[in-house]
Design brief:
heterodimer, A: 330 residues, alpha/beta, 8-stranded mixed sheet, disordered N terminus, B: 340 residues, 7-stranded mixed sheet, 11 strands, 33% helix, globular
Chain lengths: 330, 340
């Protein structure tokens, strides 16, 4: 079956953009907009884990929400298995929701505190499947076991769990209908280090067991490196570099990727310390992005071309795409 | 006091809170010293007691249900039980603190310059004008571009990284001998974190401040600290020089922490060596070694709290003999790390 699916991407975006209006004004000319996601084109293949990294405000979370149509798309298109779903109605989306699910950063905010965990986990079955009460209880128990919790936990409320256990419940809920795709937005960043590792391991196990495709959004590069097969780096709404994980992390070609990579503090006193690239200044405001290459204000290799012309994502021949006029050696 | 005497000496510090479930002990008799110009990294997960230890040093635990005992001596002076006025002469002036969220230290209704100036004038008799000039100088020293413009800006006009820098500028205003920082870079992006960590390193070099840096991130510790203390369940489980703790960690919990971090170089392990279970609840600590229930080396001796012992300034609280721990650690490392 997977041989057939291999021919086309599970999810494809073409020049996908999302703009938000900021502030209110009755005069259209005074309405300001933020281009949170700026003409992103991505193919997500069955079985892969695409990591999306970038700093706060780079649009990675908005992109994640666009991918599962949790938010409207301003322009461009979104296809699921070749079918255009950019503008389909919520009702038409329903059957698709079985196929694509989302896991959120803060499991406490995504679990209703007044309902028992068993009820929360039964919701997807109530909406999408007709099951008897006992069948439903069996499925819930099975789900809990699969995320390494115990079936007795179904009777408890979310507050009775630790942060790590709550994230397991969030994952169980996403898993309930056996989706093809799970978009996980910072699923481990609110957790303690030792718990993070457990959840990363769990996600990797589930991927094997259920043939899942993940989009893994995170700001923590080492976690993204651990779980992703391919990675896309975002800066101010656009992808600046994408490609196989090991290649992008070991030999980044975009100067932003290189800076991000070198800024990660390594927990070792012996590893030869790489030349540290400390970026000047802060992220520019997404409301007023720089001209040309959006990274030129902080880029060590910027020239006048970079100030005026926006570089396009181009293949570098080794399986990756880079948007830079003067790519680094890699 | 002599020049070589430690700046801060904490002995048997215990912080407990009265609750419905009885006395809950957040910090269980910790002892340590901070030398002049030393940067100490305190590592631990939630509930380890690391933040409560800092708050106790700052005299900021004001809950009526808190019970403090032990001793905290700063430059020879006992801080526990000191009255508010005497404490205010030390806090802000000789010991400064920065928090994870810079907005918790800034008011939104005054300009950055006013807030730094207010801090300067609380401890020194200078004119408002001189205080403002000092604020500009300090903002410049922490690497803020256009300090003479930023000084008249309000906190909401600054980015997260700039706010944290402004708070550090405020903390530096009186050249404190000790800077206490609670997860100062956790809320920041990595590229900004790198800038703030450089700044903290420079502080010691330029201002001669000692720093206690609390963090959950061993990478941050590797970058700036001289000495490392690992906390778990309200106690130190390991402490030593950075080189010693990172090269030959002696406590199974420290091994677990290292194994939980995905590597940034070399081959990726199929699975991370995660620590099973979750950090213990302070109201229901296990008997003996608090890490016992999560430790794969647990045995009968672990039911008694092991003392923090070891040679060469590198100590660990573990019931296993040190020689077998060294052997176990070598074996564990070999099984985790694939040769490059």
């Amino acid at each position: 079956m997977s041989g057939v699916l291999r021919e086309r991407p599970l999810l494809r975006t073409s020049d996908l953009s999302k703009r938000y209006h900021v502030g209110r004004s009755i005069f259209p000319a005074q309405r300001r907009t933020v281009q949170a996601v700026d003409t992103v084109s991505l193919d997500i293949w069955p079985g892969e884990t695409l990591g999306i990294v970038g700093e706060s405000g780079c649009g990675k979370s908005t992109l994640g929400r666009c991918l599962v149509r949790l938010t409207g798309i301003t322009s461009g298109s979104l296809e699921f298995e070749g079918r255009d779903i950019t503008d389909v109605s919520q009702r038409q989306l329903r059957p698709l929701r079985r196929q694509m699910q989302m896991v959120f950063q803060d499991p406490s905010a995504s679990l209703n505190p007044r309902r028992r965990v068993g009820d929360l986990l039964a919701d997807p079955f109530r909406i999408h499947e007709r099951l008897s009460a006992s069948e439903m209880a069996d499925r819930v128990a099975e789900l809990l076991r699969r995320v390494e919790l115990s079936p007795e936990h179904a009777a408890r409320y979310p507050h009775e769990f630790s942060g790590g256990q709550r994230q397991r419940i969030g994952i169980a809920r996403a898993l309930a209908l056996r989706p093809r795709l799970i978009v996980a937005d910072e699923p481990v960043s609110a957790l303690d280090v030792s718990i993070q590792a457990q959840i990363v391991n769990l996600l990797a196990d589930l991927r094997e067991e259920f043939n899942l495709t993940y989009v893994f959004i995170a700001h923590d590069l080492s976690v993204v490196r651990q779980i992703s097969t391919r990675v896309a780096v975002m800066y101010l709404g656009s992808i600046v570099e994408s490609g196989p994980t090991d290649l992008v992390f070991a030999a980044p070609r975009h100067h932003y990727t290189a800076a991000l990579r070198s800024a990660v503090p390594i927990p070792s006193v012996d590893r030869a310390r790489r030349e540290r690239l400390v970026l000047k200044g802060d992220l520019p405001s997404p409301m007023n992005p720089p001209s040309g290459c959006r990274f030129h204000t902080r880029c060590p290799a910027a020239t006048s071309t970079c100030r005026n012309e926006r570089p396009l994502l181009q293949s570098t021949g080794d399986g990756r795409l880079v948007a830079c006029h003067h790519p680094g050696g890699g | 006091m002599s020049v070589d005497a430690p700046l801060l000496v904490v002995e048997g510090l215990t912080v407990s809170f009265r609750s419905d479930a009885g006395l809950v002990r957040a910090v269980a008799g910790v002892s340590f010293a901070v030398e002049q110009r030393e940067i100490i990294g305190v590592v631990g997960e939630s509930g380890s007691g690391k933040s409560q230890t800092l708050l106790a040093i700052m005299g900021l635990i004001d809950s009526p249900n808190a019970v403090l005992s032990g001793s905290i001596r700063f430059m020879g002076q006992e801080l526990i039980g000191l009255n508010r006025r005497a404490l205010d002469a030390i806090r802000g002036r000789q010991i400064a603190m920065i928090f994870q969220d810079p907005m918790s230290a800034l008011t939104p209704v005054h300009t950055i310059g006013n807030q730094i100036g207010e801090q300067v004038r609380a401890h020194e008799k200078v004119s408002a004008r001189a205080a403002r000039a000092r604020a500009v100088q300090l903002l410049d020293a922490v690497g803020i571009a256009n300090p003479d413009r930023v000084v008249d800006g309000y906190p909401h006009q600054l980015s997260g990284g700039m706010r944290q820098r402004a708070v550090i500028a405020m903390a530096l205003s009186c050249n404190p001998a000790l800077l206490v920082a609670d997860e100062p870079t956790t809320a920041l992006d990595v590229t900004v974190q790198a800038q703030i960590l450089e700044l903290i390193g420079r502080l010691r070099d330029q201002f001669g401040s000692a720093v206690i840096l609390v963090t959950h991130d061993l990478g941050v510790v590797a970058q700036v600290a001289d000495r490392v203390m690992v906390m778990y369940g309200g106690r130190f489980v390991e402490e030593g020089s950075k080189g010693s703790v990172f090269r030959t960690p002696l406590h199974p919990y420290t091994w677990g922490l290292f194994g939980s971090i995905p590597p940034m170089d070399g081959e990726r392990p199929a699975r991370l060596a995660a620590i099973p279970g979750a950090p213990p609840s302070l109201s229901n600590l296990p008997k003996g070694c608090a890490f016992g229930p999560r430790c794969s080396f647990r045995h009968d001796a672990c039911l008694v709290q092991p003392p923090l012992v070891g040679g060469n300034g590198h100590r660990a609280a573990c019931a296993l003999p040190e020689t077998s721990r060294k052997r176990f650690h070598t074996r564990e490392v070999a099984s985790i790390e694939t040769p490059v």
